[in-house]
Amino acid sequence: MATAKKTRVAILISGRGSNMASLIAAAVEPEFPAEIVLVASNRPEAGGLATAAAAGIPTLALDHKTYPSRAAFDEALHAELVAADIDLVCLAGFMRIFSAGFVEAWAGRMINIHPSLLPLFKGVHTHEQALAAGVRLHGCTVHYVVPELDAGPIVAQAAVPVLPGDDADALAARILVQEHRLYPAALALIASGRARLNGDRVVFGNDVSRAEGALLSLS
């Protein structure tokens, strides 16, 4: 019986790549439906590049400061992804906003993990935003990337309670644990075809349970 072709994934990072590491660890399992074939960064000094290389994954550093424009950097990155025959791009702490042309070129083939329960608290400093708003639940979201920042169709979310006495660091640490669980689970759903885009929404196959589709965890 022929083995199903795995989804070829590139992970884009700008720093230590802790979510990258969780994806790499998940993809080591033989039954995982995706393979990490490239880790790229816009910062040559990004610590995650060494982590990926140690795992035997090809790495690429494209220093954005050496390009004359955002579009020129995006064109170079696009060419590298195409050359590597990438099916799906996972952003994991990639701290650059793409040009509309790049996002359109990878529409439906690029996902991101964001540290809030979107559509709440887009942008940066999400934990401070959540504390200032007085919410009782906070969390993380895996979503497709669209030209509008942090506004793409939601694949999966995980939540944690906001506890009395929480500060931004304590909240961030608890949410990071959930990010490391959520991102591989969401990637597996997409790579296996059990979650797919239908217009501006993500729909799940009949074999995905309600709990698995929600991927909601209170801890």
UniProtKB/TrEMBL annotation:
Site (Raises pKa of active site His): D150
Keywords, sorted A to Z: Purine biosynthesis, Transferase
Annotated N(1)-(5-phospho-beta-D-ribosyl)glycinamide binding sites: G17, S18, N19
Keyword Phosphoprotein appears in the UniProt entry: no
UniProt xrefs under InterPro entries: Formyl_transf_N, Formyl_transf_N_sf, GART
GO cellular component: cytosol
Keyword Isomerase: no
Binding positions ((6R)-10-formyltetrahydrofolate): R70, N112
Protein family according to the UniProt entry: Belongs to the GART family.
NCBIfam families named in the record: PurN
Its job: Catalyzes the transfer of a formyl group from 10-formyltetrahydrofolate to 5-phospho-ribosyl-glycinamide (GAR), producing 5-phospho-ribosyl-N-formylglycinamide (FGAR) and tetrahydrofolate.
Protein name: Phosphoribosylglycinamide formyltransferase
Classification of source organism: Bacteria, Pseudomonadati, Pseudomonadota, Alphaproteobacteria, Hyphomicrobiales
